[in-house]
TrEMBL record:
Name by which UniProt lists this protein: Vacuolar protein sorting-associated protein 26
Comp. bias regions, Low complexity: 56-83
Biased composition (Polar residues): 84-93
BP GO annotations: intracellular protein transport
């Protein structure tokens, strides 16, 4: 229990704050919105963030701190008056409390150094706080949600910030440290899945006496890699390495549909272009859909957890298509010769898409599939699917 309180910072003798440094090139850092309440939510990027090193960064940080202090003071002053409205803010239609759990975390590139400012502030400014050292650690971890024993930390880099000593007392009792992790290994993208998550974070630890729990706080960051459409050393011939997709859905003497898409590898902002050809239809079609499905496989051996989720559902057709003129007035057979329906899906509209991942640290894989679904009037389903590969170029 004490260890849990130490990790959460509840009842701890000090508060730990960490501010990530700005971009090395002076540009504005991007943030991503993450729902930490439960896994499975993708990360959506938003503009803005922490600017580069310099006076502008310090001014923005000071403004943010002042705004936070003002908000806290207002909440304390009007706590009783606002108690009822605040309680209703995150309630569902049944009146149950539903915390959002959404946080903003800074976004870093693959080769970018990670650093920032650590501030340790005692809870009681009039008393000094003794410690056995202060440590900062950059960690990259793969956490198995349903099999914690197989979780692993694949990256760990430690910086000793302070030797054993005392912080406080006094009006300015807080102690500030600068920390930097240069050339740190960030081999993989940040990933939040259903059964697994890959996260990077900076862990700050204040070591205390033998029978007192350490004070620990973790500050997450996101990592995204810019990928090439093809692995190194492979020819960029479009026909050889990004072939079109051609498949058929058929039942003998009842259904024959062919569909084709221009390529099998897509950047996350690409447009999926394709055509569906009706060759033979002797069943009454109720609707037709094209789906993009995500399949996550986490674990290894006998402890593999698979999860399939439909990310994109695109309705191609509602009801039967127009019949060929040769079929008018003739019997019950419905023969469609040469009817074509175009398909166009804008991947950039779906922020929860990720690149395809294969055997990340031998712990998990993520694959995507194009799935054609046909439903007849008796609700029988006919489908065909093929794997596609997604990659991030920007």
């Amino acid at each position: 229990m004490d260890a849990a309180f130490g990790l959460l910072g509840l009842g701890a003798p000090c508060a730990i704050h960490f501010t990530f440094s700005g971009c090395e090139d002076g540009s504005v850092r991007e943030f991503v919105s993450v729902d930490k309440r439960r896994p499975g939510f993708g990360m959506s990027a938003i503009g803005g963030g922490v600017p580069g090193d310099g006076p502008q960064q310090q001014q923005q940080q000071q403004q943010q701190q002042q705004q936070q202090q003002q908000q806290q003071q207002q909440q304390q002053q009007h706590q009783q008056q606002q108690q009822v409205p605040q309680a209703k803010q995150n309630q569902d239609s049944n009146g149950h409390h539903r915390p959002t759990g959404k946080v903003l975390i800074p976004l870093f590139g693959q080769n970018e150094s990670v650093g920032g400012t650590v501030t340790i502030v005692p809870r009681e400014p009039k008393k000094s706080m003794q410690h056995l050292g202060i440590r900062a650690e950059f960690v990259g971890a793969i956490e198995m949600m349903y099999d914690p024993e197989n979780s692993v930390e694949f990256t760990s880099l430690v910086r000793e910030l302070d030797a054993p000593g005392t912080i406080g007392p006094g009006p300015a009792a807080g102690q500030t440290y600068q920390v930097s992790f240069a050339n740190v290994n960030k081999a993989y993208d940040t990933y939040l899945g259903i059964n697994v998550r890959l996260r990077y974070f900076v862990r700050i630890t204040v070591l205390r006496a033998q029978y007192a729990p350490n004070v620990v706080r973790e500050f997450d960051l996101a990592v995204r890699h810019r990928q090439m459409p093809l692995p190194k050393g492979i020819s960029s011939d479009e026909k050889d390495n990004n072939p079109p997709i051609r498949m058929e859905v058929g039942i003998e003497d009842a259904l024959h549909i062919e569909f084709e898409f221009q390529k099998s590898r897509y950047e996350l902002t690409d447009v999926v272009l394709g055509k569906i050809h009706f060759m033979l239809v002797r069943i009454k079609i109720k609707r037709m859909e094209v789906e993009i499905r995500k399949r996550e496989s986490a674990g290894s051996g006998n402890s593999v957890y698979n999860d399939t989720d439909t990310i994109v559902k695109f309705e191609v057709m509602d009801g039967m298509p127009l019949l060929d003129a040769s079929d008018v007035g003739g019997g019950s057979d419905r023969v469609l010769d040469g009817e074509v329906i175009p398909v166009r899906i804008f991947l950039g509209a779906y922020t929860n898409l990720t690149p395809s991942y294969r055997a990340i640290h031998n712990k998990f894989s993520v694959k995507y599939y194009l799935n054609l679904v046909i439903v007849d009037e008796e609700d029988r389903r006919y489908f065909k699917q093929t794997e596609i590969q997604l990659w991030r170029g920007q």
